[in-house]
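Supplementary Methods, section 5.1.

A reviewer requested that the exact input to the structure prediction be made available. We therefore reproduce it here, unchanged from the version used in the analyses.
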Amino acid sequence: MVGMWKVQLISEGNTGHNPSIPDGALLDFGFTQWHSDGTEIQNSAGVPGGGFCLGVWAQTGFLTFEINHFPIAFDATTGAVANYINLREQVTLSPSGDSFTGTFTENIYDPMGNQVDHVAGNVAATRITVDSAFPSALPTSSN
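The structure derived from this sequence is encoded token-by-token as follows.
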């Protein structure tokens, strides 16, 4: 898992959300690095206000991993903290080691620590290597 990845989080099972989020909708995307010491960093283009998020990860089985990640969303107008987010992923590394897929949940909290939202879906990533060209098909928006 150690390395750099192009990652996408795709909505699944949020049609009852208010407002409804269709299955297949892109919720977040960016680049993430998983480090050998069990820490992780991601530049997130889909979190309001964008920015970098930090997390920790552990191997849970053969080719399976869990990550616990903490984005912070900012109000684009004021720059104030809008939400704290707890993103959890359970992923499986491909046998070739060049991609991973899995599921995620996001619990969203207001600045006072009250849970105000929950979304879930699927995560997919492809490995970035020293030989990688600019990744094709990068989304331009999460909406």
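The mean pLDDT is 90. These observations are discussed further in the main text.
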